Amino acid sequence: MSALLEVRNLRTTFPGALRPLPVVDDISFSLARGEVLALVGESGSGKSMTALSILRLVPKPGQVVAGEVMLAGEDLLQLPVTQMRRVRGARIAMIFQEPMTCLNPVVTVGAQVMEAIQLHDSMSKVDARARTRELFAEVGIPDPDARLDAYPHHLSGGLKQRVMIAMALSTRPEILIADEPTTALDVTIQAQILALLRNLQRDRGTAILLITHDLGIVNELADRVAVMYAGRLVEVAERKALLSDPLHPYTQGLLRSIPALSRAGERLPEIPGVVPSPDQWPAGCRFSTRCPLRFEPCAELFPEEIRPAAGRRVWCHEVERSMGGKGAS
Amino acid sequence: MMGFEPYVFSNLVTVAVLIGLGLLVRVVRRQRLWNEAARQLWDRRKLAIVLVGIYLVIGLLDSVAWKGGVPEDVVDVLPNAPLTLIDRVFLGTKEASYSAPLALVEFYGAAPLRRPGTHALGTDILGRDVLYLTLKGARVALLIGGLTSLIAIPLALLFGVGAGYFGGRFDDFVFFLISTLASMPGLLLLIALIMAMGRDTLSVCIALGVTSWVGFCRLSRAETLKLRELDYVSAARALGLSEYRIVVRHILPNLAHLIVITFVLMFSGLVLSEVVLSWLGIGVDGSWGQMIDGARNELSREPIIWWNIAAAGSALFGLILAVNIVGDGIRDVLDPRTQKGPT
C-alpha cells in the first residue's frame, strides 16, 4: 500500500532559554489512503504540534526545522506559501478540539462553510449554498435549511462540531486531521461524531489522522496507532496488536490507567509523575524519569528503533534487551 | 480645479450620504444580529434617536443648493450665489441690527423692523436671524463630527489592525507613531496643523482626525491581538484562507461593535473640540462654536444680548446629549459585557 502522506524525521522547535526545545522531535510515520491513524499521548506530548507542523501552521515563535512531509510525492515543507494555502483545506483539512470557539461568532455558519467551498472551488453563491445544504444533511444536521442562517451561538456543541466537520469536508480533502474532535462533547454526542467520522472514512476513502488521548476512541476508530511521549514516538503498531500486547512501558501504563467497571472499588493504576517540560527532558529515553522498568542506559542513551514485527516500531531499551536484539534491524 | 463649483460637490456628497444611509439600513435589515440590536436600540432610546434624526435632516436640507430663483426685491444675497433650502426659507429676513426674539422694533433705538415679530430667536449684531444661523450650524457640526470620524477611524483601523495582526516591524512602527503623537500636547498639535493647512472645513477635519485616531488605534490593536489568537482564526488559516481574507472576513466583523461605539462617542467629542477651537479663533466658519465665541462680547452689553449664545448653546447641548444617549444605548446593545449573554 503506497503511503498518501509520509512524514519523515519531522522536528519542530520553540526557542528556549538555553537551546531550542524540540517539541516535535524526529517524528516519522505514514498514512495510507483511507486509513485511520491515531496519534495518542498525554497533554503536552506534541500531538497537536505534529498536526500543525504538517500544515505549516505552527504558532510563532515555533518553527519546523527539519524533516519532510511528503503528500503524494510533494514535500509540503518546501512549497511556496501560496501553494501551501491551496493544500490547506483543499487536500488536508483539519477539525479542531473546541467547536465552541472555532466558528466565527458574527458570521452565520452557512456563510462560513460557503466561504470554504468558494475558496477552493470556483462556484456561484447559489451552488455553494446548495452544496452547503447537502453537506449539512450529510453530517447529520437536522433541518439543514434553517441552520444555514443560524449563528454559532444558536447551535449546541455537537451541532457546531458537525458544522466544523462539514466545513472540513466541503472540499473533499484526501486527509482529515481531527484534533481531539470529541473532547469538548458529552459522551452520547461523542459516539455520534465518531460514527460520522467512520462513515466518512468508509464512504469517501478519506484518510484520517486522529489526535486523541482517549484510548476508547482509538479502539473505536483507528487502524493503526502511534504513541507519542514528550515530543517523541515511543511505539507504532496496528490497533489490535497495540491494545492487546503493548510493548513500551508507557503504552502499558496508559492502557492500565483506563478505568474499568470490572475493577470498580480498586485504586486506578496511574503513571506516577507528569510529562516533564521540554527543558527538563533527559538526554536518553524521555520516559526514563517515570519508567518503572528503567535501568542503566535509559537516562543517558536514546533507544534505537526496533521492529519486533511487520508494521510495528518501538523505541525502548527494555524491549530491546528482552528480545535479545532479535528482530532489530 | 475640476470645473466643479463647491455647491455641486456638496450636492453630490449629500446624494452619496443618502445612498450610504440607505445601504446601512439595508445591511442592518438583512443581518439578524444588527437587526435585533437596532430594534432594541429603538425601543430604549426613541427620543434621542428622533432628535439626532432631526439634526440630520436639517443638515441635509442645508446641503442641497442651487442657483437662481431669488426674487428681485431681496438685496442681501449676492446675485447668482448658490443657495441651500434653508437659505431660501430665510431669504430676506436680514435686519439692520439687533432684534430681540419676536420683537416688533429694533433692540437699540426702537427703529421699525423690516419683518416685525418673525424672528423667533432674534437677530445678531449684523441683523442675521439667529434661528437661521443656528440651523446652519447643524450642518457644520455634523460635517465636523462625521467627516473627521471618517478620517480618523479608518486610519486607526488600518494601523491598529495591521499592527495587531501582523506584529513585528509594522507593530513597532505603529507604536512609535502612537507614542510620538501621544507625547505631544494635543491642542498644540491641533493648532499647529490648522495653522499649517488653513482654516477651511476639510483642513480642520483633517487636523482633528490626525490628533484623535490614537486612542482607537490602541484599542483596535489590542482587540486584534486577542482575536488573532482565537480558534476560529486558526481554523480559517487551516482552511487555507489568505491573511487578507482573514482580516476582512474574521477580524473586522468582530470589531464592528467597537467601530460603531467609537464612531458615536468620537463624534460628540469632536463637535465639542471644534467649539474650543472656535473660542481660540481657529474654528470652522458658521459653526455653533463661532456663534458662542461671537456672543462673548454681547454678554457684556447693557441690556444684555442673551438669545444668540442661548440658541447656539442649546443646539449644541441638544446634539451632544442626543448623540451621547444614542451612543450609550448602542454600547449597551452591542457590548457583550453589558448584555445578558444569548448562549
Q: Major sheet of chain B: order of its strands? A: 1-2
Chains forming the largest contact: A-B, 29 and 22 residues
Kindly state the number of beta strands of chain A: 12
Order of strands side by side in the largest beta sheet of chain A? 6-7-8-3-9-10-12-11
**For the report, how would you describe the main beta sheet of chain B?**
2 strands, antiparallel
- Quickly count the helices of chain A: 11
Radius of gyration of chain A: 21 Å
In words, what does this structure look like?
The complex is a heterodimer of chains A (329) and B (343). Chain A is an alpha/beta fold. Chain A has helices spanning 47-54, 81-87, 109-120, 125-138, 144-147, 157-169, 187-204, 215-221, 239-244, 249-256, 317-323; strands at 3-14, 21-32, 36-40, 63-71, 74-75, 92-95, 175-179, 207-212, 224-229, 232-238, 305-309, 312-315. In chain A, the strands form two sheets. In chain A, strands 6-7-8-3-9-10-12-11 form an eight-stranded mixed β-sheet, with helices on both faces. Chain A has a four-stranded antiparallel β-sheet with strand order 2-1-4-5. A two-stranded antiparallel ribbon of chain B has the order 1-2. Chain B is built from 13 helices and two strands; from the N terminus they run αααββαααααααααα. Chain B is mainly alpha-helical. The chains are: A alpha/beta (329), B mainly alpha (343). Chain A binds chain B through residues 55, 57, 85-90, 93-94, 96, 98, 101-107, 115-116, 119-120, 149, 151, 153, 164, 167-168, and chain B through 32-33, 230-232, 234-242, 245, 249-250, 253-254, 256, 342-343.
